[in-house]
Amino acid sequence: MTSTRGLLRDGLWIKQTPSVYSQEQVSRWLAKINYLGDLASLKPSLESLSLLARLSLATFPFENTPMHYTAAHSMDITYEGLYERMVASSAGGSYCFGLNGLFFQMIKALGFRAYSGAGRINEQGPGVEPVFHAFVHRVLFVQPIAGSNVTYIVDTGDGTGLVRPMLLADGGIVEGASPTEQHRLTLTARADSSLESSPNSPTAQKFEWRLESLHAAKDAGRPPTARVMYSFIEDEFFDEDYRASNYHVLGLTEGLFWENVMCIRSFFMSDDEVRSVDPSVDPAALTPLTRYLGRLTMAGSTVRRYVGMQTTVLREMKTEEERAEALREFFGISIPQEDLESIRGRGAELVQS
């Protein structure tokens, strides 16, 4: 019996399709993410896909500042706008639609076979039954191995999510940013689904994937905390779908993005930080494919640095001017003074008591 582990439904293949980006734009993107190899020798493979994903995560922040600090309160997710903001002008990053959109078109230009899908974000914390939003998360499906339809999930658009491609396999587990973090993929059924495999079937039809994050407890005797990050299906989604989803997110007047100026940037840990997470590892033996990642985060009025299980508060902010300074210092995002007025009256505004 042929195994279906790692395959799309019905064993589907992804065909190679053209990219909107030129080879010159790809070269500038590779330089921006600090890829040190030669473009001519960069061929599709699981290893090269993993390297490009990690370099992208360590370069472009997950952020929503244009939603709050521009008069239009918009996030430009057009491929032209993404290239200009993230590569040409180095003005900042984007959120999932933009980060995965740029990566999607860049790897297609490099010859990867890929398509774009969508997921539903879970708004609940660890240990709580998930409550999913609409399709407001972009994910990528990639078949990086020549002559093979083995499929991997790639997500460079979630600052706290996957840091490497993950085989599309029920029960699969991969390491996250460091050994204290893992991600698990499960194929499951929705209790509220109207679909079944046959009339009055006693078994629910499994068609929805769920990605969980597992974080080690500081108390070694306790199990890790587990949280469903999002669910997704294997259907192909297109630019029109993301434009509609983007309008939906921008129009919300409640929830995470409305209530917070968010920014998350991954970074490669220093040798000392690597040793603090795992004293048995020789940092000199690590490469960009294997070196642990830490994260800088801004949510609301606080900037934090995460290294393994260690969390450090770097900055507490009380005014928009202080937050703009933190965005510039920690994330390389400059907000003009006049644009600070655009956040007035919005849920994310820092209001002094």
TrEMBL record:
| Cited Gene3D superfamilies | 3.30.2140.20
The lineage's top-level taxon is Eukaryota
List the molecular function annotations (GO) for this entry.
acetyltransferase activity
**Which Pfam families does the record match to this protein?**
Acetyltransf_2
**Known PANTHER family for this protein?**
ARYLAMINE N-ACETYLTRANSFERASE 4-RELATED, N-HYDROXYARYLAMINE O-ACETYLTRANSFERASE
Which family is this sequence assigned to?
Belongs to the arylamine N-acetyltransferase family.
Q: What is this protein called?
A: Arylamine N-acetyltransferase 1
Which source organism? Mycena pura
